[in-house]
Amino acid sequence: MTQTATQAVIPPIVFGTDGWRARIADEFTYENVRRCAEGVARYVLDEGTQAQGVVVGYDRRFASEYFADAAGEVLLAHDIPIVLSSGPIPTQMTSYEVVQRGAACGVMITASHNPWTDNGFKVKSPTGAAAGPDILATLEATIRERAGGVPLTRPLADAEAAGLVERFDPYVGYEEYVRRTLDLDRLRAADLRVLVDPLFGSGVGWIPRLLRQGRITIEEIHKERNPWFGGLNPEPIRPNIDPALRQLAGGGYDLGLLLDGDADRAGAADEQGTFIHQLQVMGLLMYYLLEHRGMRQPVVSTINETQMVGRLGERYGVAVHETPVGFKYVGPKMIETGAMMGGEESGGYGFGMHLPERDGIYADLLLLDLFVREREAGRWPVSAIVEHLHSLAGASFYLRTDVHVDRSAYPSLKERLLVSLREQAPTALAGQAVVRSVALDTNDGFKWWTDDGSWLLVRFSGTEPLVRVYAEATSAGRRDAMLAEGQRLVYGEA
Q1: I need a surface site. Which of 77, 171, 324, 419 has the fewest CB within 10 A?
Q2: Cβ(199)–Cβ(113) under 8 Å?
Q3: SS3 for 109?
Q4: CATH superfamily entry for domain 185-393
Q5: pLDDT at position 3, please?
Q6: Among 208-222, 368-382, 460-474, where is mean pLDDT lowest?
Q7: Residue 353: strand, helix, or coil
């Protein structure tokens, strides 16, 4: 077989901003999952932590449980015991189990919010945070070095009979863990009607179960396992959540809570069915910790997050640290700085008092606690609470558009734009002069600011073949104009 043919059969595996993701049966195959698992095994062996074992979890996507078994069989072949989830679980439960058990690391089979055609492989560090660039570089190097080999495997049933496999259900331990920092009984006693949309994902049942047997009423939709996700991406943004917004707009609910496909991202909507966008959620959660919990530790924010973070930081005297996009940067920075929270534009939020990793369920519960406390303080309904946030932190008219590109054309487009956006950067946006610009440290995009604090960001996705165009502005009109200009930049139009 020629080298070219070998490369076609064994494509390179590169971990993006949050793991490796690819199309099922194309690049995401059992063979490649085993290659990833061997990289994890080699990392664990090099660290000398094989006796601590590896936690393996999976979501509700097509065949996720079988891909998880395949990964586990490679780890077992290297005499690394595994702790395997007994059913589909949210991604953050893998992080929780790693921390609670002192495991060497964690593996999660999920493609998060990607299209239903994809699946993915995430790695969690011993701290529970997403594996950082150092760990991922080691994994990728191992995968490349052994590209021509066939990973060893040990049948799962054989290893289980030998006591090397433990099955786990994280619910009981997770509820106890949450109770250390959140009064669930207070939330259960709230006289509220809440609509929850987990978007057919592995977050189904978690919020209703955590808030069961109380006065609060939780109605959950899209509960069945549906690997097609109704034809929409399981990301808690519009238009994917429009069915939930329409149901809320029909009346009878106080608010809506949203989750993505693997439940590590959070979202919300008010009593009128108005979407509370991801940057507003970041502001609300930061306000909650500062105002209602009296916390004053630093906050970590990605470069595509809201300007409200800086304004709230100034108002309350809290340091704010900025990182590249991805929790593989946010989590380690949270640990380094002792941060009380970290967040990214995609709707992922982590908390120092909980986990240095995204947890959509916990974030939704904190939002609910904020709304309960604000109502007790006389500020209600939820739409009024959002207005109060903006009175403190300024306006945030935000939107993101995704320019989808054919997979084969994506590398050449990225190469072209990295040159043209640097050499022919805009000098004005929506009629205002650009006062600051940066090329992202990760070499995957550019950001420009105007003098009123509005900004435009063009960035290449690390998990999908698309270019993301983001804008946050002081008015809806300026936001839309900036987005339009950003799209013209991507398409190469004057």
Answers
A1: 419
A2: no
A3: strand
A4: Alpha-D-Glucose-1,6-Bisphosphate, subunit A, domain 3 (3.40.120.10)
A5: 42
A6: 460-474
A7: coil
Q: In which element (H, E) is residue 446 found? A: strand 445-450
- Contact of 95 with 34, CB cutoff 8 Å: no
Rounded distance between C-alpha atoms, residue 379 and residue 246, angstroms: 24
The pLDDT assigned to 11 comes to 63
Mean pLDDT of the region 218-241: 96
How far is Cα 451 from Cα 329, in angstroms, rounded to an integer?
Answer: 28
Q: For domain 397-491, give the CATH number.
A: 3.30.310.50
**Does residue 403 register a pLDDT over 50?**
yes
Task: Break the chain down into helix, strand, coil percent, rounded to 5.
Answer: 40, 20, 40
C-alpha distances in Å from residue 195, one per residue of 261, 267, 375:
17, 12, 18
Kindly state the average pLDDT of the residues 205-221: 97
Asked if 276 and 269 count as a contact pair (C-beta separation under 8 A), the reply is: yes
Tokens of 391: 């009175």
136 compared with 163, residue with greater pLDDT: 163
Rounded-to-integer distance, Cα 461 and Cα 483, Å: 17
The region, left, alpha or beta by phi > 0 then psi within -120 to 50, assigned to residue 185 is: alpha
**Angstrom distance (rounded) from CA 127 to CA 32:** 26
Calpha distance 179→128 (Å, rounded)? 19
pLDDT digits (tens, 9 = 90+) for 277-313: 999 999 999 999 999 999 999 999 999 999 999 999 9
Confidence band, pLDDT 50/70/90 cuts, at residue 10: low
* Residues belonging to the chain: 494
Residue in the structure block whose two tokens are 């863990």: 177
Pairing of strands 217-220, 165-168: unpaired
CATH architecture group of domain 3-171: 3-Layer(aba) Sandwich (3.40)
| Cα–Cα dist 148/493, whole Å | 44
Map out the domains of the chain as residue ranges: 3-171, 185-393, 397-491
What's the burial of 105, exposed, middle or buried (CB within 10 Å: 0-12/13-18/19+)?
A: buried
Task: Report DSSP state, residue 51.
Answer: G
Spatial separation of the C-alpha atoms in residues 310 and 302, rounded to whole Å: 12
* pTM of structure: 0.92
As a whole number, mean pLDDT of residues 74-93 equals 97
Q: How far apart are the first and last CA of the chain?
A: 47
